[in-house]
Amino acid sequence: MQKNLPYEPWIISETLAKLDEKTNDKLQTFFITVDPERDSTERLKEFQQQFDHRIQMLTGEREKIDEVVAKYKVYASKVDGEEEINHSSIIYLIGHGGKYVTHFAADLNSDESQSDKILAEIRKYVN
Length: 127
Fold this sequence. Notes:
There is one protein chain. The chain is an alpha+beta fold and 127 residues long. It has helices spanning 8-17, 21-24, 41-48, 62-71, 114-126; strands at residues 29-32, 55-58, 76-78, 85-87, 91-94, 100-104. Helix 1 (8-17) crosses helix 5 (114-126). The model has no long low-confidence stretch (mean pLDDT 85).
């Protein structure tokens, strides 16, 4: 897949491992590629095997991906001369009917557990 795998699925996997059954049953998790030309469903299946099985890997037509990118204000740009894509690393919590609840930009320099921060917000929303 990529030389440097994104950290978002790792954080989400860690968060999902901490969920109680009641909360787990109320969530769906998705990873949406910003590079559908390279990330076929087969590649995403391989990628998914490295993370929690509950994370669904999604791809689609470039036009639809671009709509999601624009709606959620995601930065995505190809690195000159390489296959890699630079992109913003934001995790969104979306409620019923697609309503925005909050988002997380992981602070990888923090001593605070990023998954615990996300879990606290999920529990507030679910409860």
